[in-house]
Specification:
Elements (H helix, E strand, L loop, with lengths): L1 H12 L1 H17 L13 H12 L4 H9 L2 H4 L5 H19 L10 H21 L2 H15 L6 H21 L3 H15 L1 H35 L4 E7 L2 H11 L10 E7 L2 H14 L1 E2 L5 E2 L12 E6 L5 E8 H9 L3 H4 L9 H15 L6 H12 L3 E5 L5 E5 L4 H8 L1 H5 L1 E6 L2 E3 L11 E5 L10 H4 L3 H14 L1 H18 L4 H4 L2 H10 L5 H10 L4 H27 L17 E3 L7 E3 L11 E5 L5 E5 L3 H6 L6 E2 L1 E3 L7 E10 L4 H11 L3 E9 L4 E10 L2 H12 L4 E6 L1
Parallel strand pairs: 2-6, 13-15
Antiparallel strand pairs: 1-2, 3-5, 4-5, 5-6, 7-8, 9-10, 9-11, 12-17, 14-15, 14-16, 18-20, 18-21, 19-20
The structure holds manganese (II) ion.
The site of manganese (II) ion (MN) has 4 residues, from loops.
Length: about 725
């Protein structure tokens, strides 16, 4: 075994590296010489097998060597990590240390064992965050242990299987290592629930065979169709793994027979273009089921998974799933993060690794202004681990929560009542604010109190998870309608005051009935109550009312204007919410500034992005930078134009006009008539009797600009007008 392993290693990495490898192999053999595995074979076969897995996965030399050495410090007498560093260098030593558990602490009680497990996981997670290769070694290690678990005692089997299902399979999933995840899950399933496993396996074996036969003609036809379309591709029937089928049955409370994705047809092609072309061929021939098409190529999953999924129906009405992807996407789906090493050589321009580093660059840029270096690092790590954070209960159970979650989300995840009665929280032993953003590795402890009557309304703004939000709302909804109505009324009043609006003017039946109708409320109390428990925001209601009122007002103003012929009527003496004319929903006092990229005008659809320290930058939703900013969903914030935005916005229009005396005057008249202030005007004659004018003027909104443009276009002399 050793010779084969070393030879294969030498073939990949050359003789010089192979020297190190054989040193590692003989060192491990020496350290483990008196140890046996549970089946009686020499222990060293284990690290050698783990190492061979890593080699097969395409990992680099230090990782493969670390695989050989991974148990020498933990299980060897008197081997220190410093010894490894002296012999094999810092890199290998770091990887070995990363997978090595902390040394056992004296006498073991149940409590200390649990604490130790927590500490070990914490250490492992930290090491993974520092070098992702640690998780790959750890998973290869676990995979071999699970594959050889049948010789262990039932107690050990159950313990290992449970840990695998709770920790290692999810880890594999987060890092996109689908093949390892499936195998770990199925093996755990087999040891934890042997009866269910056996029964499902027997059924699946039969049904998958049936299903494959049913689909064989479809697969044949697919082959022909792809060939005709000149798409190179391989087609195979892929059975779903057992545990996921079992979970799905539990979740949907159905029988195996009802799972129509028991088998998927997988098409592997050469290029992304071929993926979509193949999809076209499939949809042209078989009817797709609505709502089942997923484009994970354009929108990869957080764990890097990319593929096209669709479910179609064959001629007999049997639905089947089709997955279409390139070879490289397939490798990523199976090996996840490990595929980066596999494709290191000869990879195309946009490989997973490139994409990952470009993504990292984006995070770096966004974090540039962060002063706190710890926060900086935390954010990178958090994002690197994907969209979830892993936190631990004091008992060492892992809870995964979306990035940005708070101790309150954690409390509600554990139990609704723990959430409702949460008084304060401790993270890693220190009391934290309830809006503290949880980080991976945090150990979270919730302190409840029965004197805490229930959740606070402020919590709605703090919690990140929808489920916690819903639980809080439910509480308010049921607990006290009277109080909600009262509270809702107050909230609407406060909001109106903040925007210097008068409810006496706005709360007319012709306005609020419109709002009631739109939200299916039957009474005004319903509306107040909903505001009270947070079902609808006071700001939302206020702005609808203002909108309706404005329409009225505009009619008035036009009538006045017709009467007086004066131009002052269009200037509404309304309060200005913010010097920029934009306010942030929920925090109207927040400083805003405009992105230089898209110069939004009032009326343009806009969104805000919370920068670090400079307030909120406002962009048009169609701005090309928004796409990038959207990746940090946490920082995207809703902003709205103040209804009374009467700030000076500069806009430039270009007017093509007949070049003759009086033309300029006509244009000026239109602008004056609309009460528009010109700040700059230039004009030059063209050769063919026309003039091109550029007018910079001050406008209040894109709507006003459109009015200007359309009025100018009505002039006889004008040929064309457009926004520059
Ligand atoms: Mn091991």
């Amino acid at each position: 075994m050793e010779e084969r392993l070393i030879a294969k290693f030498a073939e990949r990495f050359g003789a010089e590296q192979a020297e190190k490898m054989s040193e590692a192999v003989s060192f491990a053999s020496r350290v483990h010489c008196n140890q046996k595995r549970d089946d009686g074979t020499p222990f060293v076969s284990h690290p050698l097998t783990v190492s061979s897995y890593l080699l097969d996965m395409g990992m680099d030399a230090p990782t493969v060597i670390a695989g050989v050495l991974h148990d020498t410090v933990e299980d060897g007498d008197n081997v220190q990590i410093t010894d490894i560093e002296k012999m094999f260098g810092k890199e290998v030593a770091f990887l070995v240390d990363g997978v090595t558990k902390l040394t056992k602490s004296g006498k073991q009680t149940y409590i200390t064992k649990k604490q130790e497990q927590t500490e070990n996981l914490r250490k492992l997670f930290l090491a993974i965050a520092e070098d992702v290769r640690v998780v790959i070694i750890k998973l290869a290690d676990r995979l071999h242990n699970m594959r050889t678990l049948d010789v262990c005692s039932p107690q050990k089997q159950a313990k290992k299987a449970k840990e695998t299902l709770e920790v290692y399979a999810p880890l594999a999933h987060r890092f996109g290592m689908g093949a390892i995840r499936s195998e770990l899950e199925d093996l755990s399933f087999r040891y934890l629930m042997p009866e269910e496993y056996a029964s499902i396996k027997a059924q699946v074996d039969v049904q998958q065979k049936e299903r494959l036969e049913l689909l064989s003609s479809a697969m044949e036809q697919m082959k022909t169709l792809l060939k005709e379309a000149n798409i190179e591709g391989s087609i195979s029937g892929r059975p779903k793994h057992l545990y996921s089928s079992y979970r799905k049955m539990q979740r949907n409370n159905c029988t195996l027979h009802e799972l129509y994705d028991l088998i998927a047809i997988r098409i592997i092609v050469d290029t992304v273009t071929d993926c979509y072309a193949a999809l076209g061929v499939i949809h042209a021939t078989w009817k797709p089921l609505p709502g089942r098409f997923k484009d994970y190529i354009a929108m990869p999953k957080p764990n890097l998974y990319r593929s096209l999924h669709t479910t179609v129906m064959d001629a007999r009405g049997i639905p089947f799933e089709v997955q279409i992807r390139t070879k490289e996407m397939h490798a990523t789906a199976e090996y996840g993060i490990a595929a980066h090493w596999m494709y290191k050589e000869g990879r195309k321009s946009m490989t997973e690794l490139d994409r990952k580093t470009s993504w990292l660059r984006q995070v770096l840029e966004a974090e540039e202004t962060t002063e706190d270096s710890k926060e900086f690092v935390d954010n990178i790590l958090k994002d690197f681990l994907g969209e979830y954070v892993f936190v631990l209960t004091p008992k060492g159970e892992i809870i995964d929560l979306p990035v940005g979650s708070t101790p309150l989300d954690f409390a509600y995840r554990i139990h609704t009542n723990i959430g409702h009665h949460c008084q304060h929280a401790r993270v890693n032993g220190n009391v934290v604010r309830l809006d503290y953003k949880l980080k991976t590795n945090d150990v979270v402890e919730i302190i409840t109190s029965n004197s805490q009557a229930g959740p606070s309304r402020d919590w709605l703004a703090i919690v990140k998870t929808q489920s916690a939000k819903n639980k809080i709302r439910q509480w308010f909804k049921h607990e006290n309608r009277e109080e909600n109505i009262q509270r809702g009324r107050e909230m609407l009043e406060e909001t109106a005051k903040r925007h210097a609006q008068s409810l006496a003017i706005l709360m007319k039946p012709e306005y609020y009935n419109e709002v009631l109708k739109r939200h299916n409320f039957t009474s005004l109390d319903d509306l107040y109550s909903s505001i009270g428990f947070g079902g609808i925001s006071a700001g939302q209601v206020l702005h609808k009312l203002i909108d309706l009122h404005r329409k009225d007002e505009r009619l008035d103003a036009m009538q006045k204007k017709l009467g007086e012929a004066g131009s002052e009527a269009l200037k509404r003496p309304l309060h200005r919410a913010n010097p920029k004319g934009v306010y942030v929903l929920g925090d109207p006092g927040m400083a805003v500034f405009f992105g230089n990229c898209c110069n939004p005008l009032p009326g343009d659809p806009i969104i805000g992005y919370v920068t670090r320290g400079r307030g909120v930058s406002v962009h048009r939703t169609d701005c090309k930078n928004v796409q990038t900013l959207m990746q940090e969903e946490d920082r995207i914030i809703e902003v709205e134009w103040a209804v009374d935005a009467r700030t000076d916005f500069s806009a430039t229009i270009r007017v093509f006009i007949e070049d003759q005396p009086g033309s300029l005057l006509e244009v000026s008249k239109v602008l004056l008539g609309l009460n528009v202030n010109m700040t700059d005007l230039s004009s030059r004659s063209t050769d063919d009797g026309y003039a091109a004018m550029e007018i910079t003027c001050t406008v209040a909104s894109s709507e006003q600009l459109s009015t200007i443009i359309s009025n100018l276009k009505k002039l006889r002399q004008v040929v064309d007008v457009f926004r520059v």
